[in-house]
Structures are given as C-alpha cells and as structure tokens.
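Our working data are protein records whose layout never changes between entries. Instead of coordinates, the fold is spelled out as a row of discrete tokens. Here is such a record, shown just as it appears in the course material:
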Amino acid sequence: MHAIIKGLLQKNGSKIVLLVLDGVGGLPYKGTGGPFTGKTELEAAQTPNMDKLSGASACGLHIPVGPGITPGSGPGHLGLFGYNPLKWEIGRGILEAVGLGLDVKKTDVAIRCNYATLEDNVITDRRAGRPPTGRMRKVTERLQREIPEIDGVRFIFGPGMEHRFAVIMRFPETLTPEAAMVNDSDPQMEGKSPLPLIPKHPKAEKTAAIAGKFINKVEELLKEEHPHNYVLVRGFSTHPRMPSFMEAYGLRALAIASYPMYRGLARLMGMEAPDFEGSFGEEIEYMKDNWNSYDFFFIHFKKTDSFGEDGNFAEKVKKIEEADRALPSILALKPEVLIITGDHSTPAVMKGHSWHPVPVMLHASNVLGGLTEGFSERQCLKGELGIIPSATLMPLALANAGRLKKFGS
C-alpha cells in the first residue's frame, strides 16, 4: 500500500490531527444498579462535544492487528500511523528506549523494564505500587553506577515515569533481529512467579544469559528496597528497518506525548517528538504554538488506558470527559481532518488490553455523516466506515485532506 500511496501524494496546506485516547474502547459495566450498569465507558461518559461531532463525521470501528488478536500499544499505534503491524513489528523495548532519549544502535538490544514487588518468588505488584517518578530516577541512576557492564556487554539505563525504565544492552558487534528473540519475564499478572528467560533462536542465547545475570544483580542490589525490590523485563528488540513517515506520506509530523514509549515510536517513524511533560491541555497549547510548522499532529492521551488497566471504570469515564472538554480547543484550529480514536480497547471490566474493535470518528468536510447520535462502540457501528483495519485510516485521512491524486487514467 505504501508504494501506491507514495505515487499518488500531492502537497497542499491541509492539516491532519490524530487524537489518540489510549485504550478508549470498552465493554459494558457489569455491576448491579447505578448509572454505569450495561454501559461502556464511552456510553457512560458525558461527552457532548464528541457526540455532536460524531454526527458530522465518518464513524466506524477499526481492528488494530486482526480479529481476535489483542494488540500491544506499539502495534496499535503502528496501525494508526498506516503501517501494517504484522509486517512492521517493532519491539516494545526499542520504543521505550528511544522515547527516553537513548540512542539505539545496530549493536543494541533494548529492553523495557518495570520495577516490581517480589515476595517468596511471587510477583505481588507488577508496578511496585506506581512509585513517584523522582524517587525511581534515583534508583535507576544507582543501577547505572552499579551495573555498567556484564560479560563485556555495556548496560545503558534510561529512567522513565513511575515504575518504568529502559535498558540498552550494547554488544561489541552488529546484531541481527534474532538476537532479541527472548521471551518476557513478566507473567502479566500478580500471584505468579517471574518467567525464566528462554532464547527462541541460537543467536539469542547470549542475550538471554546476560539478561538473566542482570535480573539477578538487580535483585541483589534492591533486596531491601521494598516495594521496588525486583525488576521485570520485556519487549526485547533490535533496531527496526522501515520507511519513515515523511517517505510514506510526505507529511511533516509532530508528536506530542508525555509518555516516553509513544515518543519513541514517533521518533522511529521520523516524526518530531520533543521531550514533553505536561497535561492534556498543555499538549493542545503546544500544538497551537507549532500549528504553522507541521502538516500532521499526533496527540496522545494516556490516562484512559491507565485507569482501564487498573479496572477503574469510574475514573476512565472521567478521563474521557476531560478529553471531551478539551475538544473545542482543537476544533478552533480548523484542521481539514480530525481523527479521534484509540490504539486499542482497554475495558475496565477486563483490566487490560483486549481484542475488541476500537471506535473511530473521522471529521472532514467531504464525509457522509448523519448516521450516528454519539461517539461510542454501539453508535460507531452505525457509521459509514464500518469495521476496517487500522492501517486504512491514514489513506482515508490523506484523501480527505486532498493529498491524494486519482489512481489511474
């Protein structure tokens, strides 16, 4: 598809805004009584601005990877950026490392790490109680001093937010993707023991062995540091090779995201992604300040996903309402195309990502519209887009922005 799109591109002054409410899709609340019963988070939220806009938009549902496949945030965003996640797979470690400003080379394996709580070889809290970012930066700096290298492999640490950090394992030689074929140690739920690191390819044997030594060293150093006395590792990955966003779509792109992983993915795509730490309102103000310098704006809103993963239905509803209140500020800029969606669904009732299709609305001047009465899973099923692969949204955005010529004579 990229080859076809590239041959049809044409420049103009149009602006495209992609607003990603992370994990926005949900499922009905299963309580008995109360205002939420039988409603999804989007249905329970008071969203007058999004509801009104949906009536003048092309609405539908999108599938990030494939039917029944639960996507991670990386594949979910790749699809939104128009890259088929099954073809262009990027490891979570690389995303986290680049997002934290680490320079990833072709000699590196990047790993995403979580501080966690370990008791009697059982993970009792995968996120170590979400400790303050400032405190954990100091812990990560200590690990950098104490673990500069293992068996000739250099370790480079990148402090993240709360319980998160990234590590680069810098080998003395250039690596192939097989070197990162190691499973995660994270069991993905509390009450389980950490998983052993097992290489899935002979070239990954050294990676797995050294990463195992790293975990052991961290456990020894932090044995008295409850609740952050252990580290879980996941997302082993090497540097990807893929066309940039500019090469694929001819768009000068700005990514505004407060969480490092999403900045990392944007940077790998060739987007400008400054280190940004601020509220959602400040993200919009930053977009306003840079409106004339870019063609495409990716704005990321994280907390809808965070509260979904925590199983906190009510707080996820509040965050959706917060996003809705900010919508007029975006519309005031009059972008030719505004897409509002999520990278995946994170139903609070499931406390995690899910395979369910994600609501999407595409607002532009040349859409059919008039088919929906609100922005929610059930309303979007009535829209003109139907249920589509996520990667088709970028061609639709380009077409509605007048940036694609006719195909053929």
Q: What stands out?
A: The longest helix spans residues 313-331. The CA atoms of residues 194 and 362 lie 42 Å apart. The chain has 14 helices and 13 strands.
